[in-house]
């Protein structure tokens, strides 16, 4: 199972479409709980994610992902407005799915490395790649890392420790990925998603491109800088555009867009014409 599978995307789109229809007659709690329950049911192939809600009076703030805590939170603030626009509603409702996809990316990297299907660069090598590859394409970064040192494997115990320190995720997630490492092959041999970056070429390469996340988080500042604009209405501008061009974001927005099309289709709406309609 994967978040990119049609069955999961359709299931989630159907729940979200129902949320729109019931928006005015539902309490804030009901709306939040329904959305979180639905996303939870799509992520059962991973260690259970700790889904929560918080409230912050900020229209640009839809949700947060804490990989280190394996936790995803949604901002319930938006769910209290009866006259939310369809554009805002979809952005809000798709946030937990988008953030869960980031969790899946991390999970796949761990699974790929632990199954020896993909190599994980040593800190030294990653550092060099990071410096040499600033601004280069995913393909060039991948080539550089593939010609470097292989992942240093001694035994499965220390392999888990290295992956943990790199990806900064809880032990239970590493252990789960290791136990299910043979599923990585199923994942990379499944149909590549429509939105997959053409430069990746294969799903396995897409996972390697997502792995660049760990270089950025561990060694650089690209991700932190780019995060500054996320969630704001202006997210197609400036830093945000840079952010969306990161392989992991291209993928997460790709999956989001696919579900959005299903929702619009369910509701008989289209964008931009219906962006500002309010719930029935
Ligand atoms: Zn994202």
Describe, in plain words, how this protein is organized in 3D.
This protein has 280 residues and is mainly α. It has a three-stranded mixed beta sheet with strand order 1-3-2, covered by helices on one side. The longest helix has 29 residues. The radius of gyration is 19 Å and the shape is globular. The site of zinc ion has 4 residues, from helix 3 and helix 13.
Describe the biggest sheet? 3 strands, mixed
SSE string, helix = H, strand = E? HHEEEHHHHHHHHHHH
Tell me the distance between the termini.
34 Å
Q: What is the share of helical residues? A: 55-70%
Strand count: 3
Give the strand line-up of the largest sheet: 1-3-2
User: How many separate domains?
Assistant: 1
The radius of gyration over CA amounts to 19 Å
Count of helical regions: 13
Broad structural category: mainly alpha
Poorly predicted tracts of residues:
149-155, 218-242
Bound molecules: zinc ion
What percent of residues are in strands?
5-15%
Shape: globular
If you average the pLDDT, what whole number results? Answer: 83
Features:
280 residues; mainly alpha; three-stranded mixed sheet; 5% strand; binds zinc ion
Structure, briefly:
With 280 residues, the protein is mainly alpha-helical. It is 56% helix and 5% strand.
Question: What's the SSE blueprint?
Answer:
Blueprint: H1 6-21, H2 28-42, E1 50-54, E2 63-66, E3 71-75, H3 86-114, H4 123-132, H5 138-146, H6 156-167, H7 171-179, H8 183-189, H9 203-210, H10 212-219, H11 222-227, H12 238-244, H13 247-267
Parallel strand pairs: 1-3
Antiparallel strand pairs: 2-3
Bound molecules: zinc ion (ZN).
